[in-house]
Amino acid sequence: MFARRNSVTLAVIWIILLIAGAFWYFRDSNKLMEVLNQKKTYEQKLAKSQELIKKLTEVENVHELVSELWENSPKRIISAEEPSFTLAYINDIALANNLQIDFDFALNNRKKLKDYTRFTYTLSGEGRYDDIYRLIWLLTYEPILYKIRSLSLRPAPSAPERLRFAMQLQGFTVEKASEGEKEFADFHAVRRTNIPRQPDIFAPQITRRPVAVRSVQKAPKLPPKLPGQIDVEKASLKAVTSNSIFISEGGSGLVELKVGDPVYLGRLVAIDQNTNEAEFIITKFGKSQRIKLKIDERK
């Protein structure tokens, strides 16, 4: 009888263990499927990212190659609509390199020659000496052919740190562009951060005038008063209790304050019920002062 009971007990235990094992198996199987699905999703995202990285690397390589060809290419004459191209070209250089130059652009003449057409322009305006110098350098550095025929510099009367300049510039164009040069008609300047410093041939002509800077000291201002704040210098004390006061400003309603409560430019620091006084500390322009208010018993 005991053997039979033990067998039944063991059978029940085995059934319980079997049910628990099956439960844990299916639960872990579901978690495993979720993990596998997440892994698949991440692998797809990784593959897309790697594809984008590959394309970006190819674009960067092409950009680097084109930039190198551009910078090392010889001077050339292109086919472009003049004078609009030259004006847009100079504006593009100035914007890309943050040149603070104001200028007027005028076409002086146009001459048709055998293989090309020559245009003569006048560039006149104002700018800082360093910006004018950089503009000249960039015009002579970029592959499109321009010739600077003359340049005059003189101080600008309106601003000692600026110069007035007048530059005579020659540009050239052909009727039909050769293969490999068509892209230059859509040229966009890039910012040059590594311009080498060349001998400054204009330095002897420029005498820099000292710039007098007059410092104007502004009168300090108090911060604005926030809504609901009490200006104790314009307020009157109406009542005093053991732990609070009642105060009014400019005939407005009563406001209850306790020690530590803020007021305009300061706070309430003490209450004296025996003398019917309240003491405040306010700070103006970095200096603190104590102000005491007392109930006017004559009213």
Topology:
Layout: H1 2-72, H2 84-96, E1 101-112, E2 117-128, H3 129-141, E3 146-155, E4 162-173, E5 235-240, E6 245-249, E7 255-257, E8 262-263, E9 266-272, E10 277-284, E11 287-294
Antiparallel strand pairs: 1-2, 2-4, 3-4, 5-6, 6-7, 8-9, 9-10, 10-11
How would you explain this protein's 3D organization?
A hairpin with a 6-residue loop joins β3 (146-155) and β4 (162-173). Mean pLDDT is 77; it is low at 182-186 and 201-206. The protein is an alpha+beta fold and 299 residues long. The chain has 3 helices and 11 strands. The radius of gyration is 42 Å and the shape is flat. It has 3 domains: 1-72; 84-197, Alpha-Beta Plaits (2-Layer Sandwich); 232-294, no CATH class. A 4-stranded antiparallel sheet has the order 1-2-4-3. It has a 4-stranded antiparallel sheet with strand order 8-9-10-11, with no helix packed on it. A 3-stranded antiparallel sheet has the order 5-6-7, with no helix packed on it. The chain starts with a helix and ends in a 5-residue tail after the last strand.
